[in-house]
Amino acid sequence: MNISSSSKESNITTEASSFIAWNIAKSKHPYTDGEFVKQNLFDMISVLDSNNSKIQRLISNISVSRHTTERRISEISVEVKQHLLNGLKNCETFSLALDESTGIQDKPQKSVFVRYVTSDVLVKEELLDLVELKDTTRGIDLKEALDTVLVKANAPKNKLVSVATDGATAMVGKHIGLMGLLNSDPMYPEFIPVHCVIHREYLAAKHFNFPIVFKSVLEIVNYIRSNAKNHRQFKNFISELDLADKPSDLFFTVLKILKTFNHFPQIKEIIHNPNPTIHDGCPIPENILEELSQLEIELLDLQKD
């Protein structure tokens, strides 16, 4: 074997090792699974082509130890991050989605998602950074964290077109909230503030309160889960129904059946009232069920994307 051939095989085994590390990282498996994958490759070759000594030699030369897999994943992470930063730096426009939450150690943290349009008019969306906040989560704390993230990423602030938030006071306050502070900062252009549609759906769900309906649904769910026989009979009943998609969650399965077979007498009675109203006297649209169903479909599509 000459030097050129040896170098070529070394490059091939290194690339194969990187692919294994990439798939381990994507599936969130332990780094030690590389040896398991390698053993499976040996077994496959022994069945498919036991006389192929070249392939067997290449597989044996693939380095998949725990430390090698860790190093490969770190290298891939750096490359992916650099690709994201380059794309953001050269983008046509970009928007941000911000969410403040609390970690398992009760420390506040802020997630910054970015969606940008490339010069080829391709829309890409990634997690830009996860920043640990200080003791407080005031508007000024959120802005300082966002400034740090954008400066670190070398993002072109003048190309910012919108910022989506969860609607919290510290986020949307006109004066000392994040939106107010961004609007008063000359380094940021005029942008469109957006209230996250998923958070808005949650608020709308709290407003449309039908305790009678949900009480009945909960009673049905509790009865089904009260013993194994009831649960088995219910699952058999679901399998016999002609439903396009059979939900796995029991609570939403009951809701879907009631909606599919129009067993919403309480809601229908309210909606078909000559002057239907809800809390604070607001009128209920006659096509509310259709609108809510369509909203549910659109939100599921957004979450899949």
Automatic annotation (TrEMBL):
Q: Where is the DUF4371 domain?
A: 76-175
- Note the superkingdom of the native organism: Eukaryota
Pfam families given in the database record: DUF4371
Against PANTHER family, the record matches this protein to: DUF4371 DOMAIN-CONTAINING PROTEIN, EPM2A-INTERACTING PROTEIN 1
> By what name is this protein known?
SCAN domain-containing protein 3-like
Q: Which organism is it from?
A: Hydra vulgaris
